[in-house]
Structures are given as C-alpha cells and as structure tokens.
Amino acid sequence: MYEPIFSPILKIHFLNVGHGDCTIIDFPGDADGRRLTIIDSNHLDDNDYEDVATYIKTHFPGRNIFRFIMTHPHKDHISGLIKFKEQGIRILHFWDLNHNFGPEKEGGHWDNYKYDWEEYQRIQVDSSIPSIKPMALEQGQYWTNDGITVLAPDQTLIKDAHTDQDGNSITGPKVNLHRMNYVLLITHGKFKLLIGGDADKQCWDFIYNMFYTMLSNPLKRLNLLNTIRPSIFLAPHHASETSFHEELFSFLKPQNIIISSSKDDLTNDNNMVYEYAKLGRVHKTAESGTITVNAYTTGEYKFFKTIFPLKTMRPRRFLNLS
Fold first, then answer.
1. What is the CB neighbour count within 10 angstroms for residue 5?
2. For the segment 28-66, what is each residue's pLDDT rounded down to a tens digit?
3. Integer CA distances (angstroms), 38 to 22, 117, 125, 290, in order
4. Residue 53: CB partners within 8 Å, gap ≥ 6?
5. Are 263 and 241 in contact (CB under 8 A)?
6. Separation of alpha carbons 118 and 123, rounded Å
7. By the 8 A CB rule, do 308 and 288 touch?
8. What are the b/e assignments for 298-321, b being 16+ CB within 10 Å?
9. Domain extents for the chain?
C-alpha cells in the first residue's frame, strides 16, 4: 500500500503490557506541534512486556506527554506513573474522573500499587498539571482539534457507579469504575479508532441508547455508521464477557480488533475472542507483541506487528497491509 501524499500521519502504538492497557497516540498537531497522548499505562517488572517509560524515551526522545488520559484509576491503567516522574517524563495535561474510588491498602496488590496511586494523587493536586474531566460529547479546543470524541461517561453513569443495588452511596473499592469508564472515539479523516478501556455492558448501553433514535431510520443509520464505525477497536477489558455488548458491537462491525492480553492467554482459551472474531480480524498483543499503526486521513492504515513478542524469543517484524 502506498503512503498517501499530503496526508498527515496519525501514529498509534498498542503496547504489549499484559493484562492492562497502554495506547500511545502521536497526533499530527498543528502550528503548536505534534501532541503525544498516552491512554492508560500498565507497568510490569517482567522482561516479556514493554516498559512504558523506556518505550517513550526510546521512541519519542526528548518529548513530554501532552495529555495522559486515564480511562479509570485501576492499577492496570495507571501503573507506571511513578516511573514517568523518576525518568523525567513530564505530563502536561491529565484527564481524570469525578470519583470517590480508593483501593484496598493491604496485601501484595497494594505493595505493587502504592507508589503509582500516591503519584496519581499528587498529580490531582499539582497546579502545574491542568486536570480536566470531560463528559460525553463535550468539546474542548485541543481534544476536539485532535478528533477525540468522548462517548462516555455522563453524570448518570457516574452516579450509578457510586450507588449499590439498594440505592445507597458507595465509596472506596466498591465504586464500579467500569461503569463510569472513559470511552473514546478518535477520528482522523476517514480513519477511526474506538477505545473502550474496561467499560462494562451498562456503559455500552448508554452509548447504544444515545444513538438509538438514529438506528431506527435507515438513512440516519448509514450516516451514523460512517460517523462511528471504527477501523480499529481496542476491545474493552481484555475481551471480558462483562464488557461485550452484542447489539452495539455487531452494528459497528470494526475491521480490526486489538485485545491487550498476557502470555497466560497463550495457553488459556477465552471464548469471547471467538465472539470478537465474528465481528472483524482479531490481533492479540500476547501473540503479536506491541502493535503500531500508521493511519491516514484517507482511511488507509498500515499495521506493524512483532511475530514473536516474548523477549526470550528472537523477534522479527513483518508488515501487514490492512
């Protein structure tokens, strides 16, 4: 496939970070320059996975993170924040959520979470790092210019995430962050990327219902498909059943689906992978390693994948034209 002339390149990196997420997007930008965006981060002390901070310093030397988007503050989506600080990688803007979540502060899980959680709390009160909390379909100068559309959450989802089955308010570990997770549609001309974080079925219900009136009109249905059908879909919650919305996903039918997975998935069957395979072509980071994509405004895009992702194996690269 040729590289379209005069088409600014949107560069996307889906990092091999195991059962977590980290997507790096290098937006073409404008007169202010390119804008590096990190959506979630998962750091593991395991040589078979990418070290996110090292990856940034290697592939984007001397650059700061223009915006860090945390889809929700679970460990596998914010771990690595302390390493950014230690290695001098500045975060210029931070996307947060209105939540009363707090992790359980005991056991081995907390030992591996503590310093990233404390760094997250420091960022929240650091006046030098503007923190924003955009809601569904809100617009802002830079994220709108970069083609980012926030599909979720809204105030209803946030309230629901903080309410138990008896209607009582909840805080701490009981807050259902998957209900109020950021869902983002990134549009670059005719190319579209849908990122679902760990959004649960009810969160996807909100998005489905938001567009429901359009779905009943054939003409509007076609227009909607042209607006939101993703070229690439980062499957929510590592292809968990609790995050699979059959009606919406069957309607969208993404061309390519990326599942952020761990090496344990190489030996364990996940039936949901077969469900996603009915929608489009599936790529698992556990099998492919870090996946990079060059996307063009024409809608064309190139995949670069690692055949042997584990660093104990000898890697080679191939070009997959999609």
1. 6
2. 876 566 899 999 999 998 988 999 999 999 999 999 999
3. 7, 17, 20, 15
4. 43, 80, 83, 84, 86, 87, 89
5. no
6. 9
7. no
8. eebbbbebbeebbeeeeeeeeeee
9. 10-321
Token pair 């809100």: residue: 138
CA 238 to chain centre: 11
Question: Nearest Cα to 175, choosing from 185, 160, 154, 190?
Answer: 160
Burial of 215 (0-12, 13-18, 19+ CB in 10 A): middle
Q: What are the tokens at 67? A: 């915006």
Q: What is the pLDDT of residue 306?
A: 64
Judged by DSSP in three states, 5 sits in coil
Amino acid found at 98: N
Q: What is the DSSP string of 8-49?
A: PPEEEEE---SSS--EEEEEEEETTEEEEEEE-B---S-TTS
Tokens representing residue 91 in the block? 């975060």
Distance CA 156, CA 63 (A): 37
Cβ-contact 284, 308 below 8 angstroms = no
Percent of the chain whose pLDDT exceeds 70:
86
The Cα 204–Cα 196 span in angstroms is: 9
CATH no., domain 10-321: 3.60.15.10
DSSP string computed for 67-117: EEE-S--SHHHHTTHHHHHHTT--B--EE-----------HHHHHTTHHHH
Contact between residue 142 and residue 174 where contact means Cβ atoms under 8 Å apart: no
For the chain, the farthest-separated pair of C-alpha atoms sits apart, in whole angstroms, at 58
Contact 206, 157 (CB under 8 A): yes
Distance (Å, rounded) from C-alpha 179 to C-alpha 154? 10
Q: pTM value?
A: 0.91
